Amino acid sequence: MKKILLMAVVITGLSFGAGMLWQQEQHRQVVEPWSFKKEIPKNDVLKVGVITDTHVDTKRNVYDGVRTDDLTDVYLIEKDERPIEKFISHVQNYNPNFVVHLGDVIDAPKQVTQEIGIAELGLVKTFFDQLTMPVHWVIGNHDLRGVSRDDFVTTLGADDVNYVLDQGEYYRFIFVDSNFNESGIAHTPMNGDYTPGHIPAVTVAWLEKQLQTDRHVYIFMHHSMIPKTLSGGKDSILNRNQVHGLLSRYNVKAVFSGHIEHRIAHEEDGVTYYTLPGTRKPEVFLDSYYDFNFIGGELEMQMYYMDRNTGEEFAEPFITEGKMFPQ
């Protein structure tokens, strides 16, 4: 009896040990696609033209002291038209692979109706229709003061509010709608303006699936991911720490935002967060727009702007880590 029992123990132990070795071997053979990044040839070049926070607020003619709501009588004023025209002219010479507007296309103050908001988006689109390359639109909180998500997508011909763009062999660009409150309720023209922004659980889950790639990943979203301590007190999205924890586990190289009108770059756990000033509201960097040059997998950013105080035009490289400029 003792011999039989001993033999059973030995055989069981061998089976268990062999099983463990097989499982370990199988585990070693599984290589997740996001555990490494594709190597990009040094001569590979990808170009992106970027503009943000145009905050177009159209004017309507006044007849007998009454501001008309006639949609055929809506027009852009010079300070709205000028920076868009400058950007379009620049892009036609720069010839990027695609263009991105980072949100707050329109300003949509409270008195603007949904019909006027749609008309304003349409006016902006007529400028961008002059371009031959694709244009990608990020939805901002001011856009949603005036129009619905469906209005935004339909009027501008946008892909969606959350979507993925794989460019060539090496890059993945992810566009994210951050216009939610901390309960995950979507911002709409009818229920208020969630200024800090929030990415709800359903979008976080979708985002994680899109991050599972060996491509180099870059994210465009309207609201800031810069910590409040580094942005002069400007808010970052409400679940910033959760989202950063997710991004830092994958091949995310950078996140680009507008919204707070500061010019900041901040690297954290391998992810660089940028906020870009827009065209109308910055105190210094008026008429701002940008070239993103991805050369051999490295990003070189060029910024163009007019100094609000002097009227002087500038073209210069973007900033380095830790340096923050005024609005």
What does this protein structure show overall?
- With 327 residues, this protein is of the alpha/beta class.
- It folds into 2 domains: 1-30; 43-317, Metallo-dependent phosphatases (Purple Acid Phosphatase, chain A, domain 2, 4-Layer Sandwich).
- It is 28% helix and 25% strand.
- It is built from 7 helices and 16 strands.
- It has helices spanning 2-29, 78-94, 114-128, 143-146, 149-156, 201-210, 240-247; strands at residues 45-51, 59-60, 62-63, 66-67, 74-75, 98-101, 135-137, 163-167, 171-176, 216-221, 252-257, 264-268, 271-275, 285-295, 298-307, 313-317.
- The strands form 4 sheets. A 6-stranded mixed sheet has the order 7-6-1-14-15-16, with helices on one face.
- Helix 7 links the parallel strand 10 (216-221) and strand 11 (252-257).
- The N and C termini lie far apart (86 Å).
- The model is unreliable at 1-30 (pLDDT under 50).
SSE pattern: HEEEEEHEHEHHEEHEHEEEEEE
The CATH topology of the largest domain corresponds to Purple Acid Phosphatase, chain A, domain 2
The gyration radius over C-alpha positions equals 25 Å
* Proportion in helices: 25-40%
The computed structural class is: alpha/beta
- Sheet-strand content, in percent, reads 15-25%
Number of discrete helical segments: 7
> Main beta sheet: strand number and arrangement?
6 strands, mixed
CATH class (first level) name of the largest domain? Alpha Beta
What's the end-to-end separation, in Å?
Answer: 86 Å
Record field, number of beta strands: 16
Ranges where pLDDT stays below 50 over 5 or more residues in a row are 1-30
The oligomeric status of these chains comes to single chain
Number of domains: 2
**Mean pLDDT metric:** 85
* CATH-defined superfamily of the largest domain: Metallo-dependent phosphatases
Dominant shape: globular
**CATH hierarchy: architecture of the largest domain:** 4-Layer Sandwich
Strand order in the sheet with the most strands? 7-6-1-14-15-16
